[in-house]
Design brief:
By secondary structure, the protein is of the alpha/beta class. The chain has helices spanning 4-27, 41-50, 60-67, 86-89, 102-111, 137-147, 164-181, 194-199, 209-212; strands spanning 31-35, 54-57, 75-77, 95-99, 116-120, 150-155, 185-187, 204-207. The chain has a single domain (4-208), classed as Alanine racemase (TIM Barrel). The N and C termini lie close together (10 Å). The structure holds pyridoxal-5'-phosphate (PLP). Pyridoxal-5'-phosphate binds next to strand 8 and helix 9.
Length: 215
């Protein structure tokens, strides 16, 4: 059950932690994507009411069934996207955070011309198979420019179970790669590691548990 007052309190606590790390001025520019997966539409409504910037979903079917009729905030798609799901997602997705292949970029350009995307990078090469390698990002970015897709930044997920040192190195590498490519956005940091992400230059956080409680 979602308790909107509790979500608002959690949001304020997260915001103060961000201010403590980043300072008030930079904290203003850091956006929070409230990850509503497994929760009902009421979680998205609570997120909108307390001031979150967007909602995030990682399963196509769940996102489409929840947000086709009402969508209280812009929607970031944060899960692996199969190309055959792009068509059904296009009407509801505002930011595609997980673009990691030329095929997917082409499909998004076709079904959602001019869409905003982020390029998912697998920094460590470990764990998840999602994400392109750091070496592939430049070509993928050039392709997005050719296709008229608006790539604003990079996205990564720290390796599962990595300690804070390895996580920090992963986020630092993503920030440095984004800077090299002239990209403003770094979407990194989840409930367990968002403070590290903020310290390393994140502009977009994806937060579920810390806002809504355990799933
Ligand atoms: C579920 C999920 C999150 C949020 O995870 P929490 O630990 O609950 O904050 C963030 N990013 C991705 C890609 C996810 O799938």
């Amino acid at each position: 059950m979602i308790n909107p007052a509790q979500v608002a309190e959690n949001y304020e606590r997260v915001r103060s932690e961000i201010v403590a790390i980043a300072g008030a001025q930079r904290a203003e520019t850091i956006r929070i994507v409230a990850v509503t997966k497994t929760h009902g539409v009421e979680a998205a409504i609570a997120a909108a009411e307390c001031g979150c910037d967007a909602i995030g979903e990682n399963y196509a079917q769940e996102a489409v069934s929840k947000f086709t009729d009402t969508k209280p905030l812009p929607l970031h798609f944060i899960g692996h996207v199969q190309s055959n799901k792009v068509r059904s997602l296009a009407p509801i997705v505002d930011v595609w955070q997980t673009v990691d292949s030329a095929g997917l970029a082409r499909e998004i350009a076709k079904r959602a011309p001019g869409a905003q995307v982020m390029l998912q990078v697998n920094i460590s090469g470990e764990g998840s198979k999602s994400g392109c390698t750091p070496g592939e990002v430049e070509d993928l970015l050039a392709l997005c420019v050719d296709l008229g897709v608006n790539a604003t930044g990079l996205m990564t997920i720290a390796p599962l179970g990595a300690g804070s040192v390895a996580t920090g190195q992963c986020f630092k590498s993503l920030r440095s790669l984004a800077n090299t490519l002239g990209l403003a956005d770094c979407a990194m940091g989840m409930s367990s590691d968002f403070t590290i992400a903020v310290a390393e230059g994140a502009t977009v956080l994806r937060l579920g548990t810390v806002l809504f409680g355990a799933r």
